[in-house]
Amino acid sequence: MSMPTPAAGGARATSPLRLQFPQSLAVYDEYAAAQRAVDFLSDRKFPVEQCMIVGTDLKRIERITGRLTTGKVALSGVLSGLWFGLFIGVIFTLFTAENTVVIVASTMLFGALFGVIWALVGYAATRGQRDFSSVTEVVATRYEVLVEHKVAAQARELLSQLPGGRPDPFA
């Protein structure tokens, strides 16, 4: 949403994530609705390279997936260490002619040992302050479709034909 910045040698360069003089076209509660509006414009040969979807009012959502115990942490460490050891073992076998089964088994064993130690040390370092597992996501609560000022009227006219397109009358 700013002017192009000068590049080396006096040439003007613009960021692909900026419009020169953006105007609000419509505001949606869901990304899929904003995407549908831009797709509708694209289907009608509108120059969509002059559009932008901006997510605003960000919020962090954390979904708790379970309780952590020393046993669960140890098991997770063993399993991730086994996978890492398997990967390293397979890489080693590409460069040696020795017994590949012994190489893969030993790297998996060392990987499991390293994985369980690393996981338990990390778990102990939290001192019980986070005894749960979770997944986190950052999402926007509103999605605004912006369009370059010189094509805003054309975009509003086209978007008014989209059922439920709700062009912003105050933009």
Note down, in words, how this protein is organized.
- This protein has helices at residues 31-43, 70-93, 100-125, 152-159; strands at 5-6, 12-13, 22-28, 51-67, 132-148.
- A three-stranded antiparallel sheet has the order 3-5-4. The protein has a two-stranded antiparallel sheet with strand order 1-2.
- A hairpin with a 5-residue loop joins strand 1 (5-6) and strand 2 (12-13).
- Helix 2 (70-93) packs antiparallel against helix 3.
- It starts with a strand and ends in a 12-residue tail after the last helix.
- It is α+β, with helices and mostly antiparallel strands and 171 residues long.
The total beta strand count reads 5
Count of DSSP H/I helices: 4
- Please state the average pLDDT score: 86
Provide the low-confidence segments as ranges. Answer: 1-13
User: Roughly how many Å apart are the termini?
Assistant: 15 Å
What is the approximate shape?
elongated
Assembly level? single chain
Topology record:
Elements: E1 5-6, E2 12-13, E3 22-28, H1 31-43, E4 51-67, H2 70-93, H3 100-125, E5 132-148, H4 152-159
Antiparallel strand pairs: 1-2, 3-5, 4-5
